[in-house]
Structure formats: C-alpha cells, structure tokens
Amino acid sequence: MKHAAGSASKGGDDGGSRAVGQRSSADPAVVHPLLPVRLGGCPKTVLADGTPAPLDIAYAYEDVAAGELFGRPAEHGLERWAPLLPPLAAPGLGEGNTPLVRLDDGTWIKDESRNPTWSHKDRLNRVTVSAALLSGAPGIVVSSSGNHGASAAAYAARAGLRCAVFSSPDAPPAVASFLRAYGATVLTVAPREAVWPLVRRISDELGYQPVGNFTPDSHTGHPFGPEGYKTIAYEVFLELGEVPSDVYVPTGYGELLFGVWKGFHELELLGLVGRVPRIHSCEPAAGAPLATALRTGRPTAKVPVGESDAYAIDCAVSGYRGVIAVRESGGAAHVLTDDQMAAAQVELAGQGLWCELSSVAGLAAQRSSGQAGADDGPVVCIVTSSGFKDIATASRDTRHPPMPADWETVRAALG
Amino acid sequence: MKHAAGSASKGGDDGGSRAVGQRSSADPAVVHPLLPVRLGGCPKTVLADGTPAPLDIAYAYEDVAAGELFGRPAEHGLERWAPLLPPLAAPGLGEGNTPLVRLDDGTWIKDESRNPTWSHKDRLNRVTVSAALLSGAPGIVVSSSGNHGASAAAYAARAGLRCAVFSSPDAPPAVASFLRAYGATVLTVAPREAVWPLVRRISDELGYQPVGNFTPDSHTGHPFGPEGYKTIAYEVFLELGEVPSDVYVPTGYGELLFGVWKGFHELELLGLVGRVPRIHSCEPAAGAPLATALRTGRPTAKVPVGESDAYAIDCAVSGYRGVIAVRESGGAAHVLTDDQMAAAQVELAGQGLWCELSSVAGLAAQRSSGQAGADDGPVVCIVTSSGFKDIATASRDTRHPPMPADWETVRAALG
Prior knowledge:
- Chain A is of the alpha/beta class.
- The first copy, chain A, has helices spanning 2-8, 66-71, 121-134, 147-159, 173-181, 195-206, 225-229, 231-240, 255-269, 289-296, 320-329, 338-349, 361-368, 407-413, and strands at residues 19-24, 31-32, 55-59, 100-102, 108-111, 139-143, 162-166, 185-187, 209-210, 246-250, 278-284, 333-336, 379-383.
- Chain A folds into three domains: 19-84, no CATH class; 100-118 and 224-390, 3-Layer(aba) Sandwich (Rossmann fold); 122-210, Rossmann fold, CATH 3.40.50.1100.
C-alpha cells in the first residue's frame, strides 16, 4: 500500500516538512514565521522601486536527506516531496508526476495538462489551500477567469473549504462551465477594477484567505505558491537524470517561472547538481511587464496591456520573483506574438498534444530563438494546460455542418 | 535517461513483445497470426447466436519475466508493459500511469482523465494505431463523436498517419473543437446509418484501417484494442499491492470492461495473484445491451436506445467480451439512470474531480449497489474522462451574467 497511500494521503500532519519560515527575497536574513501567511509581501524589506519584497519559504536544507529523497521513484501527489514543501495540510488529488514527451528534434515537453484539473495550477493550489487550512480560514477567495480559479475551487472542495471566485463575464464558455464545476461561488463582477476592494473585504470580514496576490500595482504573490511549482524542476531532474540546458516557461505573473528556478536552485544547494538551467520567461507581446522590468533594470514593471488570445498570461504587472529567475540563471526574456504562439500550437497538435494558446508560449519562444538545441543538456519547454481552455474552443462556430452521405463528397473531403 | 527514454520512445521495434497471435474467444486453440488485423472477428469460430467470435491477443506468457516486470516502478507510456502488449510501432504520448485518488469512504477512483487526450481511449489508440502502422496502412478511420475520435486523431498525427473521423453534427461544442484539434478530417455525415458503408469504402478503396468495430449488429471490436486497456489492471495492482475486491467500469461496447478483466486474469496466469476482482459492467438504463445479454444468456444483444446525456456509453449493441468479463469474474451488470450518474458526478466534483457524466457510471453503480465496501479487498471505480466533454459544458447558458460590484450583492451570493 506504500504508493497508494502516498498518492492520496489526506494530510493533517506536516509529513516531514523542513520548512522554517517566510523569507524575504530582498534580504535572506529576514525570515518570518510560517504563519501568518503574509500576502502583502515582506513587512520589513522593500525593493528599489519601493514595492514590498516578495517572500518565499525557507527550509532547513541540512535536515533533508536529499540522496534518499531523490533516489525514490516518481509518484503522484506533492507529498512525494514533503520535506522540501510547507506542510501539506490540504488533501491532494494525485497532482504532479506529469510526463515529459519528446518531440522529433529532441525538445522535451513537460505536459502539465495531466494534472487533476488539467493545468499546472494544481501544484500551486495544493500548497496555498494548505496554507488556508493551516491559517484556520473558513474559505479562500480567488480572482481568475481560468485555470487558477477552477483549480483553487477543486482543492477547496476537497479540503472542505468554501471558495469564492471572481471571474469575468467574458470567460470562454468551456471555462465558465469549468469554474462552476467544483461548487465554488462564481462572482462575475463588473467593472473589473471593483474586484480588488471586494477581495479585501471578503478577506477582512469573512476571513477567507486570498489565493493569489494582494498588491495590485506589482505582483508580490502568495509566499507558499511557487513551492508547489518547484516540484516541476525536481521531476525533470529525476526523469532526465541530468540538468537541462534551458527551460522555457509560459509567463504571466512569473510565479511558475520563479518556482521552476527555485527548484533547480535547491538541487544545487542540496549538492545534487552543479548548475541551474537557463530559465527563460515567455510573455505575450501585448503586455510583457517582466521583459520591460528586465530591460529597464527595475524590480517590477507595470505596462499597458493590449489584446491577446493568450488571456491566461496577458498581464499588466510583473513581480521581482521573475527578475530573480531570469537574472540568476542567465536566461532571457522572450516576447511572443499571438501568431508565434499559434504556430507552436499547430506544431504540438501535429505531435498529438492539444494545448491552450497561453500554454505554448515556452515552445514558441524556443522555436523563435533560433536555438536549435543546446550542447550542454536537454531543452525543456513547459506546457501548462489543455486546448479546452481557449477562447475559440466550444464556440458555436467550431461545430461542423452536416454533409451529404455520398462517396464523392467524402472522398473529396479526404483530399 | 532511463525513465525519460521510456516515457516517450518513438517505437519501431517490437520492444520485447511476447504477443504470438490473434486468439478466438470462443476457442482458445484457434490462433491466427498477429497480422492481418481481423476486424470482423474470428473467421473460423462463431458464437451461439451466429455472430463471429471476437479475437484478442495471445502471448507466450512463459517467456515473460513477470517478477522483474512488476517489480519495476510505475512509469508513463505503455512501453512500460511491452512484453505483455502487441508491438508498439506507434510513438507514444506518455499515456497511462494515471493516479488512484482515495475518497473519504475508502473507495479508490482511477482517474483516466490524466491521459494525453484526457480519457482512457489513449491506451486503446496507442495499440490500435500501432496495428495500423504494422499493417502498412496510410491512415485510420474512426466513427466517434467524442473521446475516441479525438484520441485516435492525436495518435495518428503523432505517428504521421492520416485520420478520418465520422462525427455527429450534434457533438457538444467543446468536443467539436477537440475533434478538429489534431488535424484529422472530420466528416459530419447525416444520416448516421450512412456511416458504416462509408467506413468500409474508405477502408477498401483508400486502405485506411478502421480503429473500432466492423460488425454493426454486434460488437466484435478491434482485436488489439483491449490490450491497451488491460494496463489499467496492471497499474492498480502495482499501486495497491493487492487485488481489489471489485472494479466498477463505465460500459459502452464493453471493451474497457474486457480489457480490465483480461489484465487481472493475466496477473493470475502469471502467478502474481490468486484471484481476479469482481468486474462490474455499468451501463446507462437508456440502452444497456450487455445487461440484456447477460440476463437472457446470449453472447450479444441489440436493444432500442433511448435518450441519455451519457452519450459516450449509450449503445445499442453489446459484445461477447463484456459477457466474458462479468461472468468469469463473478461480477454483476448494473444499469444506471442519468439521475444516478448525475449524483455521482456531484459527489466527485465535491471531492475535486470534475468528470464526464458517462465516466462516473462506475461510481454511480457502486453507490447504488448498497455495497458499503468489501471485506476482501479495496473497491476501485474507473473514471474515464473529464467534464469538458459533457453536453452541457460550454453551451452559452453556462456563462455567468455580470453582477453589480457592491458588497451587499457579493455578500448575499456567498450565502
């Protein structure tokens, strides 16, 4: 029963977590206790632009038996990595342990659509819903028109917490069904700017814990969130048996980006590898605040946002975490047009992988970078979600009109 | 690189397959060579009702190092089980190795929505598209309005084969997008009865190999198909470390049902277990041909089909394979109303799993059977697919109207 118990333990104890506190990304000597969860960033340290420093989780790495931990086989459920995560108080759904699929040219696709709600967000929500449980909150509140909202709702339902999701009336129809599926209260508030004060009020008056950001003018992020994402790095290392040369990451607020970097960085801290891969941010050209921050040397940026069908990652603000990931790893900031992403989407569908437009930004960047394949290790592109979440999916005009049943018509259709 | 290579090998050789031929389910002494693939059933043996006996694959079990094979950790990709499968000529997508998720009452859910195209069908299509490649066919042809068609299209694209999918103009909108995603030619021929002769003509004149059935009045099925499904039984045994008491299987034509039975039966043949679980067929009450066949003692049945939202498993004909699975295992035939399935769907969503209505027929049957949990082993319900495939999903009326941004409205919505 070893594996089975592991894949679905309903949590409760800390499972051997070596987490020690919330640490400032501006000054690693500043460590706050694990609770309360500080959603506004570090109260003691600020960045050069005056925004609060994001926090992430610090561990007693010297107490982690890294050889033993990474010597065990892959397994579903983040509890597989319990020593290197905050306490997983919320029960799991067998998240993670997603496959690497190899394309003909040798590029590896980490297919995150194989998660419980079919996106990478499940890794984050296992950890953030755990934080809400640890905090004694009666529920969580989320602002999301897509994968994050549905995933948060699923983990809240599993944990017996209430869930409020602020969504957009313009969410794609399949996504609207998805958001409602897990029994959350879906709030389609207009105008959009009114959401922030309502999130804060639900938090203040009802005690629901926000799963996401609390700082509208820069992205500070949930201190626990990227801890879930970093398990992607662990899995890639475990499966490939080596460190990639480059990892391309679809980038919205940069939390996945930072998580992946942190995972590889920890492998280095633990003495398992000698270097980290170059971590590449991959943003839609319509916004791309992280590229702006990196170009201008600022810790965060806020930019005007244009239209993009890559709605899941089309953001106005970036966070310092993204800067850390790209700078520390020697990666680059890529900016993609919708056409470049659409081409990557077609390429992957031709290999049997139907992916959301936003989710192929990594492959789109790799393809447009002119980098044919590095000679210092494999190239990995993270694909975050399935094609079911796209705007065009399930609109009525994707239906096929009936055709006559004669052989000539069918023969002609087959070309 | 061991695991990585395994999870995505692009096939070509037989990978150590011990398959020896296509064997009659009416007389195990009748074994045809592996090729040509016999889609019309056994040409030498007939069942009591005069229909052709289905074929499945026979193996040289004495040449399988079962202890070694089942001693290795779980891994993505059916090549993990190559000795007990037909040659996997078609490249994979990391199918299988789906998690078991434990419900509060101890029931295990085998979540097949974690496959490459988010349903169990990927296990079948890895094997049947391999059969088409081994046969030298230029393409495949499929009749399906849902998961099977999309999965077949994905594996055909990956293998470089052409794919024709006969679909219904009434397919749910999200499914219509899904079917088109992988570049197959989607043929929405009306009336439905005209499809069979067209499938045959595409096969005869263009050489495309049908992936599915070739016998409209009973379900004989593709000889290779259930071989993919049987890996579910291997995985359940590997993860639980014991044989379940009961396995509940959503049942359309009964191929998944038979595959799961065959997998456990093989574990017994290989000396790894002492018994097989009771295998339960779970059909919509609107049709339920297998329940009719079992009740009347016939090898197959054809019944009138009423309306059901469980469109993926609402079938008019059954096959002898289903009879074998239920009879040989001492299982039972369950017949479910849409309301019973809807209740199971709500229960699972409340645990964080959003499942297609058809796909929860197994849990619905377990819940309505009054069996609180067997004392001779764990109970497993197979869930085949995600809620994105349901008829109601992504219809315009699932959208949320905008609501005013005042606190009273939001507070009231939260109850």
